[in-house]
Amino acid sequence: MSSKDGRWVIWPAYIDAGRSRGQGRAVSRRDAVEEPTVDEILVAALEMGLQAEAERDKHYPKEWWEKSGRVRVQKKGPKAALVREIATRIRRRRG
């Protein structure tokens, strides 16, 4: 899921509490958020000081018929830790 330009791909499914691990959730349910958006992921990544770019017209491979979008972020540390931190920041912003 990494690309050659030094960025990770973060799909909303990775942090969606409504999904199972088999459906793409990459964090624990406790760390996940309900129906995260590409914009929320982008804002969280930018708050972390990462270079990030939203690609709203992309389809999550497991649900190719639906445009969920994705965010490409600068590689900085392990991907799992990055995804968890993004989910934490979204939860804090939602209050």
From TrEMBL:
Q: Which family does it belong to?
A: Belongs to the SRP19 family.
* One of the record's GO cellular component terms: signal recognition particle
Q: Kindly state a single biological-process term from the GO annotations of this entry.
A: SRP-dependent cotranslational protein targeting to membrane, signal sequence recognition
PANTHER family for the chain: SIGNAL RECOGNITION PARTICLE 19 KD PROTEIN, SIGNAL RECOGNITION PARTICLE 19 KDA PROTEIN
Function per UniProt: Involved in targeting and insertion of nascent membrane proteins into the cytoplasmic membrane. Binds directly to 7S RNA and mediates binding of the 54 kDa subunit of the SRP.
This chain's source organism reads: Methanothrix harundinacea (strain 6Ac)
Keyword annotations of the record: Cytoplasm, Ribonucleoprotein, RNA-binding, Signal recognition particle
What is the name attached to this protein's record?
Answer: Signal recognition particle 19 kDa protein
Q: What Pfam families does the record tag this protein with?
A: SRP19
Which GO MF terms are attached to this record? 7S RNA binding
Q: Where in the cell is it found?
A: Cytoplasm
Subunit-structure text: Part of the signal recognition particle protein translocation system, which is composed of SRP and FtsY. Archaeal SRP consists of a 7S RNA molecule of 300 nucleotides and two protein subunits: SRP54 and SRP19.
Q: Does the keyword Transcription apply?
A: no
